[in-house]
Amino acid sequence: xxxxxLGAGMVGRAIALDLVKDHQVSSFDxxxxxxxxxxxYRTAVQLNQADLSLVSDYPGWLSAFDLVVTAVPGFxxxxxxxxxxxxGKNVVDISFFPENALELDHLAIQxxxxxxxxxxVAPGMSNFIIGRYNSEMDIASISCYVGGxxxxxxxxxxxxxxxxxxxxxxxYIRPARLKxxxxxxxxxxxxxxxxxxFDGVGTLEAFNTDGLRSLLFTMSxxxxxxxxxxxxxxxxxxxxxxxNAGFFSETPMIVNGQSIKPLxxxxxxxIDQWKLHPGEEELTVMRVTLKGKNNTIEYELLDHxxxxxxxxxxxxxxxxxxxAAVNLITKGLxxxxxxxxxxxxxxxxxxxxxxxxxxxxxxxxxxxTNR
Length: 371
Known about the structure:
The chain is α/β, with parallel strands linked by helices. It has helices at 10-19, 32-39, 58-62, 77-86, 105-110, 125-134, 165-173, 215-218, 235-244, 262-274, 313-330, 343-346, 349-361; strands spanning 2-6, 24-29, 46-49, 67-70, 90-93, 114-116, 139-150, 176-180, 183-187, 194-198, 202-208, 224-231, 253-255, 258-260, 282-292, 296-304, 338-340, 366-370.
């Protein structure tokens, strides 16, 4: 099939490199440096420099393609996805945007599109797991802990961002929605810090983030749900101190006669400090726990930077979950029309097993335990 990948950043690059093994792939990005990095792999991926914010141009750009992957920054994710659907294309999306993708369901049906959203590692793989077991057990609670971390801890942040710093900061300041005793509650991001121990990593801190997303509505019968982000201990306090000092404010201030938003300044400052450099090793750690009345099912993941391909762990775990979903569509395993978060696909055991096996073939190994 002919597939367009919108966005050639760290994750978009991994997606294109995986899909080009079996499909004709074209990558679009405004950044020539991103395209040059992709070109260095010397594959058959076609490279196109394009301003992806020009959504009115999408019908022309995308007319020749059978399927589209959207891997753009979160702030432009919803508009990008909407434009792809209006172009009448099947699409798999990994853009972590604040809007509710389910609101595009009617548009997708109108345009005869299969749309799989939030198809990364979390949200994404966690949703597949929850959907898989939802019909088999009476789930009383769900917890998801996930983090992408550098192998070498460099002060003060001890963190490197596989995504745009703007998206990470939004994760840190966007209020977190949780489910408690059957009621959706909203709490500050980075609140309710707890420490957990993970084999091969050690002690990490976890704090609330707004990662449940579609699960709050598609799995509304589950009374307790939470998603927390993992970082090395001390990171949350440092970020909270910056927020309290106004570094994430979007209210412009005048500096030397120039109007500047503190958030824009902070994001620009953190780009270099949080950037993963070529060859810099990092890891992804994740734990999804489903507690029922009579049993508990737990999935864990510990994945590392791939020294052979030079792909980061977060790019692999996120990108390959996305490409697994792409292949669900291309192989005819999933062809329903409308907008589908992964939990609505994972309930099909054949689809779930395909995703698990697809990841395993690429060295992303999930470990399941039953208690």
